[in-house]
Amino acid sequence: MTLMNSFYLPILMAIGGGVLYHVGQKAIPPTVHPFVAVTVAYSVGILLCLVALYLDPGGRSFSASFKELNWSVVGVGLGAVVIEIGFLLAYRHGWNINAASVVCNISVALLLIPIGLVVFREHLTLRHAAGIGCCLVGLYLLSKR
User: Fold this and answer.
1) pLDDT 10s digit of each residue in the chain, 145 long?
2) How far is the CA of 112 from the CAs of 59, 87, 88, in angstroms?
């Protein structure tokens, strides 16, 4: 069996892409105009983003925001592609639509917890910890073949 025919690889691709996507979104500098970030991250839809940028005269200019872009915009674009391909392959290899997204999203959320705590200095409450416990139980139940 090849790696691309693996039952778990596609969902792992979707999980990895989801983590990269959310980290990238969180790390886009606040001074970058959001339409500029979307334009760079996604080559499809450039025209629509430029029109939206033009229609927002109160925001930072294209050139000013473009100069401040960093690695995170590329990460957002890469993450989006991996998510799309991962889900497509997951469904083609037998994942149910009602389980694949839940398994992926719970997994992404769990992987983002330490990143949020360490990199972005977010806080975890007791209520959040209880929710994480429920997610772990749900992930276990949903991922059993």
Assistant:
1) 455 578 888 888 788 877 877 777 777 787 887 677 767 776 645 676 678 787 877 777 888 888 999 999 999 889 887 776 778 678 868 888 778 888 888 889 889 999 999 999 999 999 999 999 998 998 888 877 7
2) 30, 19, 23
